[in-house]
From TrEMBL:
InterPro entries: Beta-barrel_SelB, EF-Tu_GTPase, EFTu-like_2, Elong_fac_SelB-wing-hlx_typ-2, P-loop_NTPase, SelB_WHD4, Small_GTP-bd, T_Tr_GTP-bd_dom
Function: Translation factor necessary for the incorporation of selenocysteine into proteins. It probably replaces EF-Tu for the insertion of selenocysteine directed by the UGA codon. SelB binds GTP and GDP.
One annotated GO molecular function: translation elongation factor activity
SUPFAM superfamilies: EF-Tu/eEF-1alpha/eIF2-gamma C-terminal domain, P-loop containing nucleoside triphosphate hydrolases, Translation proteins, Winged helix' DNA-binding domain
This protein's UniProt keywords: Cytoplasm, Elongation factor, GTP-binding, Nucleotide-binding, Protein biosynthesis
Protein name: Selenocysteine-specific elongation factor
Domain Tr-type G: 3-174
Domain of life: Bacteria
Length: 627
């Protein structure tokens, strides 16, 4: 069974004991800032490892409860798999508790537990009253059927119970997609002395490994994952659901900020216009008006924009879903299905939230026709559903596409006939844009390889595809290589793949010395010195010898007799012709010595090389010509 990774969040009103509960569960104080210690409130997100075994790893985010730090709260909760709602027994549900509940609902968090904290401050009878009050307040929320646990972080009452419940709940829960493209919304950026820029966040989807090339979006900065840490421990890889810190090369702290997104794929969309489906909070204090300024929280980003309605001019009360558009002042990275929160900039309040129908919204006219179009988009056209499934999985057989798109076989087959979709291996579907992207990636890898290994015939195919197989199915990569060969982009010789126009060559810096070495070897004819002496005399370094010998042998410029001696290719060929012309169909060692006038130290390796090349076959004490 593959190990699964989850991040849980502590949410609730300020001073209800979230940080204390996190410390009781993990033995780590997540309030690390001086201001947090002094004011005894959480300002930034706090993180700690909660539990790990062979099957599962669980991390905790302690999100700030104070209304002034709601942005940090949204940034933290956006990436979690389960929420522990902390409600103090001596206070019950408070304003920030309700706001956090709204945010969790809009972000689509479906799993939750309720921790009634500070129970040592009240008697049992009061706890019963608080319990009933909380139960009523949570009716209709994600916590409506959630288990309640009584805890006290100072005396450790209920701590083991809630920990066991968290572990049991997550062991029954599906983890995030680790096979899709890597995406990590950044919630912290800092520098480490001697290491450089580090970003931290929760991996939304996919996985990342040390050395992998990545992009910072929407800025388009190309970086590389120099080092990865999970809870301050080095790790070669990080997976969806994990809290991770990544040391990045080629970028400074000043170039980045919270809200940027670290990705491995070009398939994510950068946009300023979103078609969305939203719901409003139940008790709006102020009207939400057409084109009103809003503050969008999506992932860890916070962006100003305006809300555009197509079937109304204002909202005071609305229980249903509203289809509309968000027009932003800055670009963000997002995709269909991403959840978000909407807040009013002034006076500050959460007004609603929803999900992205289409990250590439167009300009539409006011009226029912636009709403009808958005309804169709919301359902998703068959082509959009197929494309979304293939972007995520890279390639899928028909039966899996049926599951993922909820389309019937006839509809699927009809749309899969479009040119942008490709059937390969007779059973798997992918899309042409991905094939083109992979072909370009392989082209770049081969080009780089040829520059640094110009004497080699190409890259061993298995080696070429090894690192890519972690992100793409091997069957798809094999198809792309064959596709490139068919289209004259690549060529293959035995197990080696190269660019079609590539011809192996000696690096320019060593070409003249190699030429001089070959001239000297040819001049010495059949009575050569040790091959190493020729390399040394020409000033060719030992590190280059192996590749150069293999290259010269491939070009038939060098024929090695054994580990010590070699002939120039022309000299060897002339010797073979001379021996053949002066012997019959067969000959003995003595006959060859008479023809070529060679001592035994050359003669025996020469004859063995004739056998190895298939010119002759040894039969007892004689050799028979085969060619």
């Amino acid at each position: 069974m593959e190990k699964r990774y989850f991040t849980i969040g502590m949410a609730g009103h300020i001073d209800h004991g979230k940080t204390s509960l996190t410390k009781a569960l993990t033995n780590i104080d997540t309030d690390r800032l001086k201001e947090e210690k002094e004011r005894q409130i959480s300002i930034e997100l706090g993180f700690a490892p909660l539990y790990e075994d062979d099957e599962i790893q669980i991390s905790v985010i302690d999100v700030p409860g104070h209304e002034r730090f709601i942005r940090q709260m949204i940034a933290g909760v956006a990436g979690i798999d389960l929420v522990v709602l902390v409600v103090a027994a001596d206070e019950g549900v408070m304003p920030q508790t309700r706001e956090h509940l709204d945010i969790l609902k809009f972000l689509g968090v479906k799993n939750g537990l309720v921790a009634i904290s500070k129970i040592d401050r009240v008697d049992e009878e009061f706890i019963e009253l608080v319990n009933d009050d909380i139960f009523e307040e949570l009716a209709g929320t994600v916590f409506e059927d959630a288990p309640f646990v009584l805890v006290d972080s100072l005396s450790n009452k209920g701590i083991d119970k809630i920990k066991e419940l968290i572990i049991k709940t997550l062991k029954d829960q599906e983890m995030r997609d680790v096979k899709g493209a890597f995406r990590l919304p950044i919630d912290q950026v800092f520098t480490v002395k001697g290491q450089g820029t580090v970003v931290r966040g929760t991996v939304y989807e996919g996985s990342v490994e040390e050395g992998q090339a990545l992009k910072i979006m929407p800025r388009g900065l190309e970086v590389r994952a120099r080092q990865i840490q999970v809870h301050h421990k080095p790790s070669v890889k990080a997976y969806a659901g994990q809290r991770t810190a990544i040391n990045l090369s080629n970028v400074s702290k000043e170039d980045l900020e919270r809200g940027d997104v670290l990705v491995s794929s070009e398939h994510f969309i950068v946009t300023k216009t979103l078609d969305v489906a939203i719901r409003m909070v139940e008790d709006l204090e102020h009207l939400v008006k057409q084109r009103m300024p809003i503050k969008l929280h999506i992932g860890t980003a916070e962006v100003m924009g305006r809300i555009v309605f197509f079937d109304r001019n204002e909202i005071k009360e609305e229980n249903g879903e509203i289809l509309c558009q968000l027009r932003l002042e800055e670009e963000i990275l997002t995709k269909r299905g991403d959840r978000f929160i909407l807040r009013r900039p002034s006076p500050q309040e959460t007004i609603g939230g929803g999900w992205v129908i289409d990250p590439r919204g167009n300009k539409y006219r006011f009226g029912n026709q636009t709403i009808e179009e958005l309804e169709k988009k919301k359902a998703g056209t068959p082509k959009e559903r197929i494309t979304a499934a293939l972007i995520e999985a890279k390639s899928l057989p028909l039966n899996e596409l049926i599951k993922r798109t909820a389309l019937d076989e006839a509809t699927l087959t009809e749309h899969l006939g479009d040119p942008e979709f490709v059937l390969y291996n007779g059973k798997e579907y992918t899309f042409q844009l991905l094939i083109d992207s992979l072909e370009e990636d392989i082209f770049d890898r081969l080009q780089d390889y040829h520059l640094s290994h110009s004497m080699k015939p190409g890259v061993n195919k298995a080696e070429l595809l090894q690192t890519m197989q972690k992100r793409f199915p091997k069957s798809l990569l094999d198809y792309v290589v064959e596709y490139g060969i068919t289209n004259g982009i690549f060529k293959r010789k035995e197990q080696f793949v190269s660019l079609s126009g590539f011809i192996p060559n000696v690096p320019k810096s060593w070409a003249k010395r190699t030429e001089n070495m070959l001239k000297e070897l040819k001049r010495d004819g059949l009575k050569v010195r040790y091959l190493k002496d020729y390399f040394t005399g020409a000033g060719i370094p030992e590190s280059l010898e192996f590749d150069l010998k293999r290259f010269l042998a491939d070009q038939q410029l060098l024929v090695q007799l054994d580990d010590q001696f070699a002939y120039h290719g022309e000299v060897f060929g002339e010797a073979v012709d001379k021996l053949r012309s002066q012997t019959g169909t067969e000959f003995e060692v003595g006959d060859a010595k008479d023809v070529l006038a060679l001592s035994r130290k050359y003669m025996i390796p020469f004859l063995e090389r004739l056998d190895a090349k298939g010119f002759t076959k040894r039969v007892e004490n004689k050799r028979v010509w085969k060619m």
